[in-house]
Amino acid sequence: GENVEQHPSTLSVQEGDSAVIKCTYSDSASNYFPWYKQELGKRPQLIIDIRSNVGEKKDQRIAVTLNKTAKHFSLHITETQPEDSAVYFCAASRGSGGYQKVTFGTGTKLQVIP
Amino acid sequence: ETGVTQSPTHLIKTRGQQVTLRCSSQSGHNTVSWYQQALGQGPQFIFQYYREEENGRGNFPPRFSGLQFPNYSSELNVNALELDDSALYLCASSLGGLAATDTQYFGPGTRLTVL
Hints:
Oligomer: heterodimer
Mean pLDDT of chain B: 93
Distance between the termini of chain A: 41 Å
Number of helices of chain B: 0
Radius of gyration of chain A: 14 Å
Distance between the termini of chain B: 38 Å
Largest interface: A-B, 31 and 30 residues
Order of helices and strands of chain B: EEEEEEEEEEE
Number of strands of chain B: 11
Helix content of chain A: under 10%
Number of helices of chain A: 0
Largest sheet of chain A: 6 strands, mixed
């Protein structure tokens, strides 16, 4: 089955600096890659996603890149702010026998230091 | 448009008991997926329901079962609770379970503690 590895597990950056989180996946059939932000005690919220026919997508301070050949994708947050502090999960999704199977990474705890 | 809701928020049970968790999908969504999130881990896929039928399942034993109703709301039932079942249970709804590229929107979760 699919295996998604996520690094680093924790990340501390100064406010205003950039943060990068990297994920690799094993199943070449995966074709949709969402990123979720989860604040303490709250639900995971989609922040950005990318589909396999696109190499890069940007939404204001957040960008995601995808390298299908190498089977890795990354989240980039620029000009970080204290409210960016949370746990971030990457995920890989594929169709599997008639249903959508989503496999999550283990999460990155991002701390933005004011 | 209403978002995904779950009930109850918290639940405490003892080993061997049974529990039912509930999820209302987002308006217009016909697919519900259930996940177990242990502390400090990513969500683990339990199963998915599409138009009232289970159409996919992860590596969870049969004592984890579910239902989906005609209004697309869903229940997760866990029998013979074990200590390791303590976790945050999340449901996520999406437009249609047959598309691998559907966005899943999560509910706030039910925190289950098994003593």
